[in-house]
Amino acid sequence: MAMKVLIVEDDADAAAYLSRGLTEAGHSADVAGDGETGGDLAQGNDYDVLIVDRMLPKKDGLTLINELRNTGKQVPILVLSALSQVDDRVKGLRAGGDDYLTKPYAFTELLARVEALGRRKQTAEFEAVYRVGELELDRLSHTVTRNGQKLLLQPREFRLLEYLMRHAGQVVTRTMLLENVWDYHFDPQTNVIDVHISRLRSKIDKGFERPLLHTVRGAGYVIRADAD
Amino acid sequence: MRTPTRLFRTTAFKLTLLYLGVTVALSLGLIAYISSTTADLFDRQLETAINQEMAELGRQYQNQNLFKVMDTIGRRSMSPDASVYLITDFSGNPIAGNVSELIYDPADVAENATFPVRYIRISPGEGEESAHRALAKLSVLGGGYRLLVGRDVEDRIEFSTIIRHAIRAAVVVVAALALFSIVFLSRSVLRKVDAVAASSRQIIAGDLSRRLPADASGDEFDRLAESVNAMLDEINRLHSGLQEVSQNIAHDLKTPLTRVRNRLEELTRAPPSEGALPDRLAPALEECDQLIATFEALLTIARVESNAAAVELTRTDLSHLLNDMAEFYEPAAEDAGLELRAKIADGVAVCGEPTLLRNMVANLMDNALKYGASDEAAVVLSLRAEGGKAILSVRDFGPGVEGHDRARLTDRFVRMDAARSKPGAGLGLSMVKAIVGHHGGRLALRDAAPGFLAEISLPTVS
Per the CB < 8 Å rule, is B358 touching A184? Predict the structure, then answer.
């Protein structure tokens, strides 16, 4: 599903790198070099996602986001910053950003987040049941079935699966899982997330012919029905 | 040349001058008030005395005759402090009195009021006397006779002259004393300020170990110096922390950077076939990620240690936080072949920042999972409240760390030999120490015999 992305970033190299990467991933990208141009473009076009650097010439990133939100723009925004997590993240989100990524970042991480944000528009914060192949997750009754066979999940495993299924078909990174499933904002040095995933996998895929939960090397995980 | 102008500009100089001015003005005002009221009182007393005497003499003249009055005057004149008397007839010729000469300005003469006169008394035997000053009053006795009664004011004038001289002398003495104390005070203040300024200049020049002089006198300069010195201690601590970090960065980040550079350079020298490129690049990328993580950790430590992070500490349910963390780490522990035993007391709360606290626990858990392999095959995460403290501990049953090495564990980039084969930058326990410090707690690293025990105590809140 191709998306239209606006990159507001004053570092031309970084912007070109992002634009190239997004285009290769099948999306289209516009670039604005400063806050004012970014604001004009965002107002005049219908983008699926905005990527906004925090420090911009003419108008800084947070001001830009604030103004867009004040004029009723609902477009999902990913805030980029060279400032660090600890104190800055909250400010970025408070200003109206939807997600926050610190520089330097891995492109796979950025792409995964952009796609997750873009998807949010169409899907299904409000759908009661998520389906991936024969796997069904009922958000109201908190039950998970595959082929009609009930699977017993721990509460956290349920939330993990819920997040993966909400973003079915999209790569979800470890950091995204850590932030969105656990609301943790630190970087564990051990393979904690991988172990959680493998436990979940053993519950939903074990004994079934077709695996649904896949590991994407160097990026993260994806849940999808098709076999490719 | 400079000292006098500097003296004048000191606060001590200005204050003393102001104080002196106010004191002098107040004293002069007080003296002026007192002397003017005393003079008034004196004048009134004098007038009363003259009036009384005049009335008495007037009565005698009415009741008896002029001779009676002359007799009385004659008698009274014997006394050394007698009034001045003069009776003249209708043509102005003196007919009785105790003055040989009376001089006054006719313009001053007024009915029913005193006026100044000068006179020379007829003194028996004493010969010539100089003219004395007096205040006098004139009344008409009838039959053309006029009676003048006056009182000598020479004493009073002399008295006020003495007072005036005394005031003048006092002003001179006070001014001299004031000048002396101004100079003395200003100089001693200047000396102290100069000492402070000299120390400050040395500190500015980079000698952060210098301290302002304090002489334990407990005066305001001492108190100021103490506060500034305490501030300098803190700055010095932060500064050396910063220095340490920059040295660490120089030493320990250059090595992995060199490795990355070497790999990349190798690729440009001998480019691999296109298909092999990603595999050849992967290690360099991994190295970069590790570098980024190290940077992030260093920055976090520095920020937490410098207190600069606008980290809001709020009431945090530590029991809840640890239960979550235990659940989070349990699968990873099992994967590492360890049983995670959580012994977490309920309802223990501290004042803290949840993300930092989780970071702290995560570092300890990561260590325990990495280095805690043992026959016991367990890691213990425990929390209990004890005398206003929350005691949080992570213990493994692994080989532990030798006593002399334990003290170095919290230094940055310190890695034990056993750790060299495992991933990590040697920042975990530095981070833990910084976070514990930021929360006003204590970190103890112990030999649990067997195993390694990290124990953190944090002040609890209700």
Answer: yes
